[in-house]
What we know:
Its EC number is 1.-.-.-. By secondary structure, the protein is of the alpha/beta class. The chain contains ten helices and seven strands. It has a seven-stranded parallel β-sheet with strand order 3-2-1-4-5-6-7, with helices on both faces. The protein is globular and about 55 Å long.
Amino acid sequence: MVHAFSRTRPAPGPPVAAPDVDRAKPRQRPRGGVTRTRTALVTGASSGIGAAVARRLSAEGAWRLVLSGRDPARLRRVAEDTSATAFAMDLTLPGADRQLADYTLAAAGPVDLLVAGAGIGWAGEFLDMPPHTIDELLDTDVLATMRLVRAVLPGMVEAGSGRIVLIGSLAGCVGVRDEAVYSAAKAALGAFADALRYELRGTGVGVTHVVPGVVDTPFFEHRGAPYRRSRPRPVPPERVADAVRRAVVRGRDEVYVPGWLRLPCRVRGAAPGLYRWLAARFG
């Protein structure tokens, strides 16, 4: 995932640069049964889960990749490793969603798969959280993702195929102390995934909600506090990337990484009082 609070537009530089999308000729979906390489757009691809997903999809050799992230240098390295086209940008900027969607269409063709992995976090008591940081977190983790989905979804519906993958978090299922706003943002993504899935039934477009627990990425460095709990133990981002790939292949609606994380989510849903008592006692 992308973890940065800068709202300045990153300076482009090959291969992390956007073409003139107003002049570029969009690649159209072939007609008459002609097959083509599918296009995957991955956000938050500078590092962490997004970078791991990009490398996993690249290893299949079946995808034309477009990567987006805020860190041009890191994104450039991931793009070189995956033979991808990349565009460094801040998705919270006005019009960024449309610009990225148009860029992807011009550079690689209609989007068949969107993996929305861009996100930031903040750790600490809610009373200590600066108001502007609340806005930044919700804008990055929720609004920017929704706007980008809105930009690419019409093409998928028109084609009758495609998949949206939203990277959520266990925090969105159970709530985590000292991560109130982050938990709320990820809960919003989970509800968005469910509601959108219902709307898209019968269109050929699927929605997958990926729910990882603690992942060994730079996320904790950037949120302001390291991860110090003994359990759950962090999993490598490659494990989440493998789960994303399996979910896309099998058309799964929701996956947990690791799988046992379904248990606390189900306990909270079935017996919220018991869950809150256990959470208060064991943290």
